[in-house]
Amino acid sequence: MDLALQVVLLVQFFLGITINGFIVGVYLTQWITGGSLNTIDTILIFVALMRFLWHWVISLTSFIPDIGLPVYATCFAMSSLLNWNSFGLVSVLCVGYCVKISNYNNDVFVYIKLRISRILKWLILATLVISLAYSVISVPWDFVLSHQNNSDIWLVNSPLMLTGISTDYSFALFCLAFFFSGLMRLSSMTALIHSLWRHTQHIQCSGAPIQNPHLKAHLRVIKVLILFLSLYIMYFISMLIGSLDRYKVKEMSISYVIILCFYPSVHSGVLIFSNKALRKACLVMYHGSIHCAKTRKPNTQIQNTV
């Protein structure tokens, strides 16, 4: 494996397990201590858990080359299932946030808002079924084909095989699996940005100053949503180009590798920044570590003096 790719995988591994492990730890602590988790928080903890496990699986196949074909095939299918499940659940999460925050008087939107809990359950079920179908149908077929003709394999035994985009057949199934989740995410994020921007214009027209807390909160959410949308578009283009590049060359550009590997970690990091409870827990941990470092330093100096 190329040295640059090894460095990328190592960095994304530690970054991914730290960020997603933090999200899982915060919500598990809240749940164990008696706090209840709403539907959106439950989806968020499952997204973080799947990404946490995905980083371990992808690193296992990357840094342990001689794990054997059966183990590698199992990790191959598991990583695809975890990746597509987390991707689909994030789309469901976008729908939940859109319905919760947006304010439309449309009859269809009001109907969805009144039944959002039931609709989210059906969307989660549909996402899991599509992810499972893709992993069962496409990934083993892709894996067998790639090992029947070694002259036609690109990046064999590398984590990029684990994305399930290494054969001609996977490209069509990849587009089909991506369509359902992508449609939910794009439509919900666009509707939410439009609703927030319209409400922001209404606040400004009412004569509110630019330092108005509601206006600042709306603008901050809009910026975060635009960042989410940009990350998603970059990820989709990278996956698409990675699939199309197989018809021309036998390897992917390192820039596309970086985007594919770091997207889950960066997306989870932005989720921490945009979520009030996670952001507060992160600040508490940060200030606690600073306090521990300051109290430990005088004790060390006293011991050295003695």
TrEMBL record:
GO annotations of cellular component type: membrane
InterPro entries: TAS2R
Keywords: G-protein coupled receptor, Membrane, Receptor, Sensory transduction, Taste, Transducer, Transmembrane, Transmembrane helix
Gene3D superfamilies reported for this sequence: Rhodopsin 7-helix transmembrane proteins (1.20.1070.10)
Subcellular location: Membrane
Listed transmembrane segments: 6-28, 40-58, 70-99, 119-141, 161-180, 221-241, 253-273
Topological category with respect to the lipid bilayer: Multi-pass membrane protein
DNA-binding as UniProt keyword: no
UniProt-listed Pfam families: TAS2R
GO molecular function, a single term: G protein-coupled receptor activity
Assigned protein family: Belongs to the G-protein coupled receptor T2R family.
Record-given protein name: Taste receptor type 2
Organism: Xenopus laevis
